[in-house]
Design brief:
3-stranded parallel β-sheet; single chain; 207 residues; globular; mainly alpha
Length: 207
């Protein structure tokens, strides 16, 4: 999210590499994250539907109510409306404050598409096949379409097999799996990044 913002302001930046960079609005990213993660955990379908319904309520509240105090009260109402009574005041306060924190409010409402369309430097955008946080099937084609329609000529958008959100070789891609994997970052992904950079900027360097 940040790199395209920076590169549109600083012309001297030579390239950007996006690792699981969202191409969809934050609200859609969170919906996809929650649904995929819950399915991997084996959560029952009604519980998944309830969670997604709750998120839709939250996102609409954040869109309609820029004032945090008002939004927090609306979020508490949504929590009870969707899940029913029984939450402590402390629990509801924590939930409402979390959703109205500056970063979460920004992320939910931000659409990276317009900024991506302004990027003119070379772009390498990589996605992991097993990523449950930024779904490759959802974001990769949108990223390609944005760059293509912007007339960008120096980009490569690619999905890497069997890699999770952290670009580790994984079995399921589940968040709970991250800490169980010894590998920190796929050598294949590192090689691709290195080759892409070298081909564009260091063609005369012997290595």
């Amino acid at each position: 999210i940040i790199a395209p913002m920076v590169v549109t302001e600083i012309e001297s930046i030579a390239l950007i590499v996006l690792l699981a960079g969202p191409a969809l609005p934050g609200s859609q990213i969170l919906l996809d994250q929650n649904e995929k993660s819950m399915r991997l955990q084996g959560v029952a379908e009604p519980a998944i539907e309830t969670r997604l319904s709750y998120l839709h309520h939250i996102f609409q509240i954040l869109q309609d109510h820029p004032d945090d105090v008002v939004a927090q009260e609306k979020i508490k109402e949504a929590l009870i409306q969707v899940y029913g009574p029984g939450f402590s005041e402390e629990k509801m306060d924590d939930e409402a404050k979390a959703w109205t924190s500056p970063w979460i409010r920004f992320f939910v409402l931000y659409d990276p598409g317009p900024t991506l369309g302004q990027v003119t430097c070379p772009v390498l955008a990589l996605f992991g096949e097993l990523d449950v946080q930024v779904d490759a099937k959802q974001n990769l084609p949108v990223m390609e379409t944005i760059l293509e329609q912007a007339g960008h000529i120096g980009y490569l958008v690619q999905e890497l097999p069997e890699l999770n959100h952290l670009f580790q070789c994984a079995q399921t891609g589940a968040v709970e799996e991250y800490i169980q994997i010894e590998e920190t970052f796929s050598p294949a992904a590192l090689d691709l990044i290195g080759t892409w950079v070298l081909e564009r900027f260091f063609v005369d360097v012997e290595h």
